[in-house]
């Protein structure tokens, strides 16, 4: 993909320390600016701002995709194939409970991808995916 343009996403959390440990220590995101009310992360080249606002944490609503219940409200990153597998192994080794276990979605079809879903400590759903063929990211 050419001309990478980072995005910014702000989302609610309930605790700075647990969020710092999850995104910083476990996922390896560089920590940016922070106060006692919010913290920024370099999320695979994108800016995440986690704001303490526990009353905004949503209940997990789902839609069915490829026979799985996918959390509607989620965010994540598309990683290179090898990095995706390394992350899946790291998450398993750290006892992360998956909403959807790592697997290949749409196998043999347009848009074939590796995907996994899990929750951060505040219940925000994350999806990490990978494509062996990046031209399939926006394929119809």
TrEMBL record:
Pfam family membership, one: Glyoxalase
Q: Which Gene3D superfamilies match?
A: 2,3-Dihydroxybiphenyl 1,2-Dioxygenase, domain 1
Which positions are tagged coiled coil? none
Q: Where is the VOC domain?
A: 5-131
User: What protein am I looking at?
Assistant: VOC domain-containing protein
Q: Highest lineage ranks of the organism?
A: Bacteria, Pseudomonadati, Bacteroidota, Cytophagia, Cytophagales
């Amino acid at each position: 993909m050419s001309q990478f343009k980072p995005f910014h996403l702000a989302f609610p959390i309930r605790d700075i320390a647990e969020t710092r440990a999850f995104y910083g220590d476990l996922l390896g995101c560089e920590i940016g600016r922070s106060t006692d009310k919010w913290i920024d992360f370099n999320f695979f080249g994108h800016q995440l701002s986690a704001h303490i606002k526990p009353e905004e944490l949503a209940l997990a609503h789902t839609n069915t995709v490829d026979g799985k219940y996918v959390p509607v409200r989620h965010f994540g990153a598309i990683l290179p194939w090898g990095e995706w597998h390394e992350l899946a192994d790291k998450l398993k080794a750290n006892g992360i409970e998956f909403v959807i276990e790592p697997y290949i979605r749409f196998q043999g079809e347009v848009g074939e991808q590796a995907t996994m879903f899990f929750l951060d400590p505040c219940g925000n759903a994350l999806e990490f995916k990978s494509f062996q063929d990046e031209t399939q990211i926006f394929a119809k």
